[in-house]
Specification:
It contains eleven helices and 16 strands. By secondary structure, it is an alpha+beta fold. It has two domains: 200 residues, DD-peptidase/beta-lactamase superfamily (Beta-lactamase, 3-Layer(aba) Sandwich), CATH 3.40.710; 172 residues, D-tyrosyl-trna(Tyr) Deacylase, Chain: A. Strand 14 and strand 15 form a beta hairpin. Helix 8 packs across helix 9. It is elongated, with a radius of gyration of 25 Å. The N terminus is likely disordered.
Length: 399
Amino acid sequence: MWSHLPALAYALFLVLLPVPALSAAKDRIAALAPSALVLVLDEKGNELVARNADKPFVPASVNKVVTAWLAMQVLGSDYRFETHFYLDGDRMLYVRGGGDPFLISEELALLAAKLVDATGMEPLTGIVLDASYYPADLRIPGIEKTGRAYNALNSALAVNFNTIHAVRRGKAVRSAEKQTPITPLAISQFRARARNGRSRISLTQQDAAVGVRYAGELLAAFIKQAGGSIKGKITTGSVPGGLKPVYVHRQSRALSSILSQMLIGSNNYIANQVFLEIGAHRLGGPVSLKKSLQVAGGILAEHGLAEDIHLDEGSGISRKNRFTARGLARLLHHFAPHAKLLRRSRGGSRYKTGSISGVRTLAGYAKTSKHGQVRFVISLTGNTGRLRFRLLQAIERGL
């Protein structure tokens, strides 16, 4: 009988058909969390759901999506962090850190084998560690002086995310990872700061040089595993002027892979290492938070987001980061080509979580049956995060 309807009436029928389902989804979301911030936009930017969407919110680790987007803009998906090695006439090895956020044990094993090939089997007379690419007084807002791994200090030269993963039984300390040799500094740090059992601690907040020295100890252990040897001490200092690199190690992981690990693992250390590199890459070293905020602010302004995305640092650990839902949704439009870097839900959605005391956030791309892929932003107050995913399911199933 629909063939007897005028064309205009039929078209209006088709437009209005989804409205009951959309209304039901809105009611479901309102019933689940009446005070929540929820914004959902379709691919064309039309608002499907908008609850409390005009109130600025603390993004927590959703902040890392912005850092990832900025890094893609400035550095590019195939960017590789570098660590430079120098050898003088006395066979003193100098190591200049370049802020590589992924110098983990497996990377050190690759690096050490190539380094021994480049320097030869004759014993090294010592190692000098140069971390001057990062100022000694660099501090990231929101990073506290605790032993918790998410509070690890950022550094030009650090290994395993500037943390130690080990097992303590009384005074005995062993590595919790088969791939990571235990070192004297790791043992002393665990004896002084860790309880019995397995744990991961950040290196001391009082002296950034402790992390650098640990990097040197672990590098020395891997050099020995690769067949090299070291007769002298491990110290900190500067690379002598005029000395040319004997080996430059380019991180085996491209930036896109590092960003995926950062987003899925929500690693604050990686996020701020990447964020600091954004400023130094554009404006020159050494790194500084001011440089990175300047570069980030310029890019956000170019995309009309300067008023909606306020950054204090790159990880989301600072409560002074402030977003608007509509601003983040617009940024998600730009980040969409990189959506696969995000964690995937069972329903096929891609998302990033954020959690700090009193704040629970969720944002990304929801897969819906009626509207395809939609962009969403969710922000809740409180300390339970399950409700975020119930809201996401309501979006997936109801839109």
